Structure formats: C-alpha cells, structure tokens
Amino acid sequence: MEGRPHVTVLDDAPALALAAARLIVEAAVKAVAARGRFLIALAGGATPRDTYSQLARSPLRDVMPWADTWVFFGDERAVPPEHAESNYRMAHLALLSRVPVPLAQIFRMQGEAEDQEAAATQYAEAMRRVFGTKRGELPRFDMILLGVGVDGHTASLFPYSAALKETIRWVVSVHAAAAAIPARLTMTLPVLNAARRVTFLAAGSEKGKVIRAVLQDGTRVPARMVCPAEGTLDWLLDRTAANSLEARRP
C-alpha cells in the first residue's frame, strides 16, 4: 500500500540542511542500536552537499557512529571520480574525507568504466556482499537520500525511462538524453522502495512546480513512484520550494 509522505517545511536552505543532517544522525544511531550498523545511500546535488557539510562539523560529526556506517550512492554520472560532476567527488570533498568512516565501508559507483552495464552489475554484487541477501531478497537500506529534478526525475530515473519498469536488477546503466551528462548508473525503484527510510531534499522556488505535482497533484513522475512499502517517506523542503503547496491549502 502506498504510504503517505511526511512533509517538513524549513525556513531556508541552511535550516533544511541542518534538519536533514540531524535526521541522518538519528537514523544512524537507531540503526546501530537495533542492527549493529547503518547503511545509507547518498544523493548528489547542492542541497545534499550542504547536508553533508553539516554532518562533517561538530556537534553532529562527534555523535555520528562512523565506524558502523556503510556508504553507498543512489546514482552516478559516467565520469571519473575526480570529475567536477561526480557525485562521489562532491560527497568526498564535503563529507567522506572529513570524517572517520572506514574506507572499506565506502562504495562508489564506477562511473568511469568503459562497460557501464558491467559496472552496474558489479555495484549490485557489492551490495549483495554487504547486505548478505539471499535469492529473491532485496537490500534494505536504513536510509536513502534523494533529490528531485524539475522534470520529476530522482536518482537517475528520468521520465519515460525503461529503467522505471525494472523489477529484477538493482542497479542499471541509463541514458538520459536531456541531461548534460546523459550516461549514468542508478539504483532502481525496487531498491529505493525496499528502504526503511527514504528522504527527499528539495530547496529553491524552481522546484515548486514539481513538488506540487508529486505531493498534491499525484502526477506519475519518477519521484512519485518512490514509496517504500514498509518504510518511512520524508520530504524536507525549504519555504520557497513549498510555496506552491501552501498556496493550495485552505
């Protein structure tokens, strides 16, 4: 059954980033207490970057259980890890190089691989090893962070993409014709929807139209298709992104 999203509106982008960072720490502490480790998939983009910067600073840096944290990525562009458009590079600079998470517990997508299909398969295999899943099981992340594009895409799942119909593979290679860097790797909807918690982060007035489409109009864009069956779905918005929602409230 489709769950109802929990929407939180913050005053501005810095407040959103801090709230998101606190939510990550809260989820991590609970996951480690319950299961001994915290498994998270990171997102790219400006709002997640600011969130990672908050996590890398005290006091949150000091209470996050880094030794018990495993880091994956929801998607990646087909670029080397040092490329300016690499999601891994952004997360490394803003967070991973500044906190004591073990290197062996960080899993980046091989965006630079010549064979992107093989890279997708290898990433799924790494997930299987870490999660210890059996045949027919899905990896269940404790938390997956996502953004949303003005066209409603999330991770690298774009409107009309064949990847939206994927039911078997966990990670696929996609071609997003409208994107500046069209070749990408992305986790698929079955993985996103198996998570214990999915948290969307969106800031800026340019996101207002798509936020309304997803949360109020029910438009069938990719972000709308993310709805964890047995998990929590959060949307953290700054006030400018949420303005279109507020205008429709009675």
In short:
The protein is an alpha/beta fold. It has eight helices and nine strands.
Describe what you observe in this structure.
The chain is built from eight helices and nine strands. It is of the alpha/beta class and 250 residues long. It has one domain (6-246): Rossmann fold. The strands form two sheets. The chain has a six-stranded parallel beta sheet. The protein has a three-stranded antiparallel beta sheet with strand order 4-7-6. α7 (208-217) crosses α8 (239-246). The protein is globular.
The proportion of strand residues reads 15-25%
CATH class categorisation: Alpha Beta
Q: How do the helices and strands follow one another from N- to C-terminus?
A: EHEHHEEHHEEEHEHEH
CATH topology: Rossmann fold
- From the spread of the alpha carbons, the general shape counts as globular
The CATH architecture name reads: 3-Layer(aba) Sandwich
Overall mean confidence score, pLDDT: 95
Which regions are unreliable across 5 or more consecutive residues at pLDDT < 50?
none
Report the end-to-end length measured between terminal Cα atoms. 27 Å
Supply the helix-strand structural class: alpha/beta
